[in-house]
Fold these 2 entries.
Entry 1:
Amino acid sequence: MRRNLLFGAAISTIVVEFMMRYELGLEEPDANRATQSAITIGISYIVGGIIPLSPYFIIHEAQEALYYSCGVTIICLFIFGYFKSKMTGQHALSGALKVVIIGALAAGAAFIMAKLITGK
């Protein structure tokens, strides 16, 4: 029984490695680049978070800033989706619209959950 489990685990590891390399085109990450990757991801989160928050620094009325924040975020999602689609070989306009729709749905779901949790 134990031998079968070990054999199954070994096969599973081989299958995962095969799928990552040949099906998904992913390579094993380089352990020496962990710090650089962490810094890059951290800076990306900071910049990505500042973009939708920036209208709140400029506009003092929260409701009005919310509208500008939504607009700026939708524009940024469209631009990101456009270039992501161009880089991955997809149709640029449809890829950009997909990113906008997914982002809008995620934001809407978060807004609804916040309303449900706070009860307001």
Entry 2:
Amino acid sequence: MPGSFASEKESRQEDSSNERTLRHEMWRRFDGDDWDAFDQLPPSVRQRVTMHAYDAWSVNVLILWRHYKGIYGRNTRAERALIRYLDYCERLERQAFASCYTETHGQPLPHDAAQVGVLRE
């Protein structure tokens, strides 16, 4: 797992957001208007983005949507493929966070220890 959690002071200096995960080490966040990007997504993808365990970064999702649309066309197959990819990314993020938490605290993430899934609704 690359790196470790930044101290609270370092996090505040680097970024004024409430982001406290390893996502910045795993992914690149593209600039843009998140609300405008969200509005351009199909309804099924918008619904999945709102249920993502973390902020799904709508600009990134829009870039992915354009890619999947180019491969499959604008149809439900493209939407399902993108949603599956978002599910995969979420699993990777949860695994990375849980691994770092276990390393830092010497015990499993409480959510994992309780063997519960992500609360969606």
